[in-house]
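Re: export button greyed out
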Amino acid sequence: AQSVAQPEDQVNVAEGNPLTVKCTYSVSGNPYLFWYVQYPNRGLQFLLKYITGDNLVKGSYGFEAEFNKSQTSFHLKKPSALVSDSALYFCAVRDSNAGNMLTFGGGTRLMVKP
Amino acid sequence: DAGITQSPRHKVTETGTPVTLRCHQTENHRYMYWYRQDPGHGLRLIHYSYGVKDTDKGEVSDGYSVSRSKTEDFLLTLESATSSQTSVYFCAISESSTSWETQYFGPGTRLLVL
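Workaround output, generated via the alternate export path:
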């Protein structure tokens, strides 16, 4: 069975500092990995995804994520955080052996302070 | 929110009453999904549809039914609402079921069952 873990409920970072939101996964086949962001009272917005190829994936709003197969991780990063990046972030995985099911992590709240 | 609307956006109901939530898309995508979002659980799939009149169960389908009579509309029904179904419900769409296909989400419906 596929699973996703986001080990931090909340990440605090100062504006201008780099940020990392962690995600680890477990699949039996090849992983397809996604990051979404949720602003208050809004739906989830797609940020980026890893399919294959380059381990560093670039996405919307200056975010990027690094796929690490040996560590089964897909951490979300941004070189310089903005206060407006404060939101709830979800990692999700789909296993190539598990049909159409997309499994989400529990979410990490990012707080960027001025 | 990717041409997806959900109605109602907020609803308060009493235990034992039937409730129907509507998802409407203007993207002509074949696949539609219903998720529920609960703190600490991320999003969990309730049901999904792969075409008109074609639906299947997800991870947490007990107590829910769905119908899709038109490509653009996907209805979620709680036959007899319970307090455990208090949640935020999200509809999502995707063009295909390939493993790397991105799902796009609607704005959500906040349901409170008293």
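The mean pLDDT of chain A is 93. The button fix ships in the next patch.
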